[in-house]
Design a protein that fits this description.
Elements (H helix, E strand, L loop, with lengths): L1 H13 L3 H18 L5 H16 L3 H18 L5 H17 L2 H18 L5 H16 L3 H18 L5 H16 L3 H18 L5 H17 L2 H18 L5 H17 L2 H18 L5 H17 L2 H18 L5 H16 L3 H19 L4 H42 L1
Amino acid sequence: MGELYNRCGNGYYDLGQYSLAKEWHYKVLEIRERVLGKEHLDTVITYNDLGLVCCIQGDYLPALKWYNKALEIREKILGKEHLSTSTIYNNLAAVYGLQGNYPLALEWYNKALEIREGELGKEHPVTATTYNNLAGIYKSQEDYPAALELYNKALEVRERVLGKEHPSTSQVYNNLAGVYKLQGDHMTAIEMYNKALEIAEKVLNKEHPVVTIMYNNLAGVYESQGDYSAALEIYKKILEVRERVLGKEHSSTSEVYYTLAKVYEFKGDYSTALEMYNKVFEIKEKVLGKEHTTTATVCNDIAGVYYYQGNYPSALKWYNKALMIVERVLDRDHAGVAITYNNLGLVCESQGDYPSALEWYNKALKIREKVFGKDHPDTLAICDNRDRVKLSMERVGFTSKIRMFIWACLDKIKESFRT
């Protein structure tokens, strides 16, 4: 029965239904702990499986808890140098990497690498995967030379062991391209992405999700170069695939509409940008609901376009829609609420409604100071907005006083003529 439950858990995991996967793995755990004991190696597998599910759901603390339980037993039964123990080291490193704790991620990946190089050799695909994982951490730390060195080691092994036309080889080309893009070497990045795509299209198919991700990455390079025409051409190809494979109302299709909207916005083609954003809004409302934070983000984006167009009433309408959502679904002291307050302040300021602008900026500032502190750049940016409005109000007040003085003088002059 436990094995059947385990297959169900793994099956739901493969389908991306992680809540159901976790539910079945808990059933497996209950049986294995009762029948085999908490220190049996099969029980450890379930601890690891629960760690994987929690990790992919973004529940990093529970993931670490399960991985550490698995590690404690594997080290005790198999030893610290066993290959199966290195798997837990690798999984712990992955969680720390996702948490942004890069020193600990490097420490655990290096522990895994030491075992894998010793047990499997430097030219084993699993060892190459560890090189790839380590490179990803160095990339996140912006240590691009170290990242490139390790990605190239992984590439060398994969090309020799798996072949030049293997999906894993294609993945390393994709990763290398990402580093070159971050370094600003766009030409090499394009070359690497094209190599990755050439392999992926051959061994997978043109409509495979991995292929569309690589096309998306390639388009991102053209976008970074300011070559919006080339970027749009690729994004439209991706959209065509997503609409055909997933449908026009799928969440992943809406992500392409969103990217297209951003590009059109950068180009200054606000009408087309609004058309794309509205498509995203319709899908997100339908798929996620009217009170989801992602729906609020799209409301903010639509408002932003109206703001750039100088259509302040429409901008206010959409910023208020966003505000209604974030105030309902987020804590009132959440940074996302502060962003919307600040945006409303910008619109009111542009309309010359300085009292309302000051009110919104003060609300945003109160949250930013509480969340980030008084010296954070985001807090200081709102201070600048507030001070600018105060200065504008003072100028308006001073101008009004001057105007009143001039009118009073004119009245006295008129009166003198009468007498």
